Amino acid sequence: MKHTYKYIALALAVTLTATSCEDFLTRPAEDTYNESNFYQDANQCIQGVNYLYNAPWFDVIRGFYRIGECFSGNYYMGDSPYLQFTLNGTDAELSDMSKSLWAVNANATTVYNRLKKADVDETTKKMCMGEALTWKAMAYFFLARTFGDVPIIHDVSAEIASGNYNTIYKAPKAQVYEYIIMTLEEALKLLPKKVGNMDGRIDYYSAEALLAKVYLQKAGVTGTLVQADLDEAARLAEDVIKNSGRKLMETYSDIFRMQNNKNIEALISWHWQSPYNQWTCQNAFQCDLANKGMDEFADTWGQWNGPSIALQEQFGVTALMDPTTRSDVDTRRKATMMLAGDKYDYFWTTNGGFDYLRFFYDPDYGPSGSPNASEGALRSPTGAGCVKFLYGDGNDHLAALGVSAGLQSNGLATHILRLADIYLVYCEAKLNGPGSSTTDPLALECYNAIRNRAIPGSVSAKTSITFDEVFKERNLELALEGDRWYDYVRVGYYNEDYVVNNIQAQKRNGYMEGAGGFSLDTVYKNYYETGNWNTADIAYNENQYPIPSKNAILAMVKAVPFPSEDVVYNPNLEKEAQEYDLTRFTY
Hints:
Strand content: 5-15%
Distance between the termini: 33 Å
Shape: globular
Number of domains: 2
CATH topology of the largest domain: Serine Threonine Protein Phosphatase 5, Tetratricopeptide repeat
Number of helices: 22
Radius of gyration: 23 Å
CATH class of the largest domain: Mainly Alpha
Largest sheet: 2 strands, antiparallel
Strand order of the largest sheet: 1-2
Structural class: mainly alpha
């Protein structure tokens, strides 16, 4: 079976053809553009790397959310193997994510090799080479945290030429992290230091921030926390915090607005194109996450899912609370998930804003004044809807970017590494796992800054922070951004019980249906029409799906299964990992 991905980067078109047996060896075609007729000047070098910011990542989107947020208990997706820990190698989204990550590796490597030979301005050339290596490292970071032991494909062309691609063994994940570190260290030699960078491109501090996060993830991979890795994570994070010129955005919700696609907090982002010239260049997150009728393109179908009850409780609220008395002290809650009573001035701006309840129960309320297609009912068993990764409707898109959105297409950037994350990386690096605490001055400064933005003027400065506080703060700060599961993977390397106990305590199911229909629909509709709030008939459905077993949780922490089609063509992927000689890999 062939899978074809078509990418465009301004004047450069690159076509990637992947076969299921060679997913981790896919590479751009070299018969149209090559060293002899491209990469002739600085502008072409930039064009040649631009598509690495979007197209090869497109098929990561669904796996990114299912693994990062559904596995972790932040997102409810009924009957999903990611919710129930029953995932196997036949899952389509898992297969697509795997293909996409190997495609990033292949494309980034090919671009790097072509740039290396280009006879152009050295400053721009090195910058672009560094960007390519950072994307390569990011792809491997996702691979190692998701699949554990994976093959190291350093040079796609060389592996294909060798003819050994169906017999490659996996490398131990500890070595994969070493390979990522080697790649990022090379990127740091090439990338410029742009203080306060807001052009959306990867620079030295972007790669350094990723390297700090890699060291933190690697610290416990052998089963015991290694202090030297924690120290290095802290050192790198401190340099980013103190010297990069990056700052926290003043208002949390502003981070995720289209007009701030390139902002002073973002370190690494996917920058999507809309309208797109080639499929895979565009953002399609809203399609999966928004309720039916969110935009005028009839391309949203996320109404049956939603932010979990477990995540609601992390914020100290639930959908059962009366909106008029609900205590929403953390501004991140509303910027992360919608609940009854919520209104948003940055969605449906030409309609006077977006009203979550009116959306369901006013048939004349919709994008550009046209009737919506919400079906007149709340479908989510958790009562909540996503906010992050949503752009609104076509007019919102037009106002922010100067062009309308399109069918399954928008230009909202996806920030996959931002400064607040690095603040918390530093905090965790100054701790020693569950049960520990720290009074490190910079850790306290970072933690308090994040809390003060979330709850302006209402929190006392902490003089000591614990691991539990930092671990929870990571979830509140980064919820629904595709990262939470990897926090569990990191801690699970060296403290399995902490992860198991945390996940088993979550409310991962939905609410039981009341007499009136779809779960909380009766409550919400009655409240909208009468102002009366009554949840007496609604209860958490403890028996919907069983609490995940310890063995099921730990199996996924150690390694999500490889796609079955890959294993069929390379049975060695199911065998024990073999040590690689990393000294043979050079840039």
